[in-house]
Amino acid sequence: MFQLTCPGKQCVKNDVLSGLTVxxxxxxxxxAFAFVAGVxxxxxxxxxxxxxxxxxxxxxxxxxxxxxxGAMAVVMVALVAEHGIxxxxxxxxxxxxxxxxxxxxxxxxxxxxxxxxxxLGFVNGLAIVIFIAxxxxxxxxxxxxxxVWLSDTPLWIMLGLVALTMGIIxxxxxxxxxxxxxxxxxxxxxxxxxxxxxxxxxxxxxxRDLSGDPTATIAGGLPSFHIPMVPLSFETLQIILPYAIILxxxxxxxxxxxxxxxxxxxxxxxxxxxxxxxxxxxxTVNGLFGxxxxxxxxxxxxxxxxxxxxxxxxxxxxxxxxxxxxxxGASLIEMIPVAALVGVMFIVVLGTFEWASFRLLGRxxxxxxxxxxxxxxxxxxxxxxxxVIVGVIVSALVFAWEHAKQMHADTNIDKYGIKYxxxxxxxxxxxxxxxxxxxxxxxxxxxxxxxxxxARVYDHSxxxxxxxxxxxxxxxxxxxxxxxxxxxxxNLLVKAGDLVEVNMMEDPTYRVADxxxx
Length: 518
Prior knowledge:
This protein is an alpha/beta fold. About 60% of the residues lie in helices and about 10% in strands. It has helices at about 10-35, 40-60, 70-85, 85-105, 115-135, 150-175, 180-195, 205-210, 235-265, 270-290, 300-305, 310-325, 330-335, 340-350, 355-360, 365-380, 385-405, 430-435, 460-475, 485-490, and strands at about 65, 140, 145-150, 295, 410-415, 420-425, 445-455, 480-485. A four-stranded mixed β-sheet has the order 5-6-7-8. Strands 1-4 form a two-stranded antiparallel ribbon. Strand 5 and strand 6 (about 420-425) form a beta hairpin. Helix 1 (about 10-35) packs antiparallel against helix 11. The longest helix is centred in the middle third of the chain and has 33 residues, at about 235-265. The protein starts with 8 loop residues before the first helix and ends in a 26-residue tail after the last helix. Mean pLDDT is about 85; it is low at about 500-505.
């Protein structure tokens, strides 16, 4: 059921004002990411508007903000440089269709496979990335076009305004919650700069530095329908498909992880599959209306949540305010001091970073600590999607290694000379070697019974290990009985033949992951 906002006028006010705050912070971000991708500022701003409003309306996580992001921009830059912007629009369109398919196939549920240490590393790494990105605002171009750090009076003005912004955001909520603290800080610092005529860099200065055009502006019209002008051929598909798959994957990973973080902060639950569809529709529309595409933005989402935005109205408001800036208010937005926006983002960094993770050092398994640090480092050095994938793989390998060590057996020989192996633990690809080492066919008596009552077979590797064990005993002309193995496993055992003892009254009924079952 679609719910625009929570009941009550207070919720509407919070969502609208929070949306305005987010829109102000979106402008420099969208412009910067547009230049990262090698496209015009309006392409990034249009993407932020279209992604924002579409995902707010049909996405699966109310209160989450989507727009043009750096994670996707770094994937786009090579495509734009080599083939041009029309191929980018085609790739974004195809990426959107892939994301819609992922949602319809209900693949969003796989976000549950991301372990907590990976989430911790993701959050901390992203906080560091946001912090490092803000440091660029402390640089200006010299007469040779080389970026140098601010110094002397401009630096102190910048630092003072950043500190003032952060102070307002921190202390204002203790006095009143009538307006979002971030919005109040941006407006207050802007007015101080204007009335005191301070030499502070503005959004307009950022546009000039990034574009090299002294007349650069964010002003523009409405996005217009535009079918990507690329040849409809298999060669075109070969060019855009790899980029589309990567864009779709990066977008979904960042969006679903951001959704999980917002779920935790709001103590509610988003709908992953619906968010996949929302992201897909947003990118599809971007490809048809001249936008660079995008995904969920953790920084802006946290600004929204911290400013009181909880409903879909907050995302809709942010998108509409952004469009209004493009159409009517470009001159006003370009006056905002960059220091105010940097201060807002620094507060986001402080709120995003999991400081409690330092207290966990030495209290959690060393492998979990390693995974968290690894994901954070890879996020900073390379890419969010790569970091998460590596983190999940390493966590899975650690899990498999630890569980592989749990396979063991109790042995005894009864008065008839029959040897019993009572197994305990999981039998899967990671534990097959341990399982094989438990047995001694050469020195075992003529008759051996293996009891699986306290063990479970989880995959084809486990079945193959049992088959190989049966073959080892067969070669030595010894009889092997396997008890309490479920019927499905018995049907799949090829080499054991008649050596498998069937006990339907006691055999378990669990299923095993094996292609032959289907």
